[in-house]
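Hi support team,

I submitted a single chain yesterday and got back a structure, but I'm not sure I'm reading the token output correctly. Could someone confirm the output below corresponds to the sequence I sent? I've pasted both exactly as they appear in my results page.

Thanks,
R.
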Amino acid sequence: MTRFSHVRISAVFRGFLIFSLLLLAENLLAQDIAFDEQVPEGPRCIVISDIAETFIESDRTIQISLRSNEKISIRLGEGCPQLKFHNFFTFQATGGQLCAEKSLVVSRSGETCPITSFDLPNIPTQKEDAGSAPE
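Hi R., thanks for writing in. Yes, this is the structure output for that exact sequence:
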């Protein structure tokens, strides 16, 4: 009977250890997320009413032009089947904003595709446009 109670304590200890490790991991992940939100790498959200025009480049990328003439690419993680073929989509947004990792693009077929990021295109400067050569 002593041996059985030792096994039971060991199982309880393992359960406690696993639970503690899960809590620690959850805390560490929450700190990483908070740090990422404090130092964003480009826009995290876009106000929908600021969008002037959209163009479906592929099943993974939608180009948008804002009213301010700024160009932004919407990246869809795994892609959105038949998005380019149907050339139609809607958004599922919150509070009038599209937010990376929160909002969805919905294709004509009803497929929901998460927005993973917003990217700014590489726009050449006026010096590069003028064709100035390096010295």
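A quick pointer for reading it: Residues 1-39 form one domain. Let us know if anything else looks off.

Best,
Support desk
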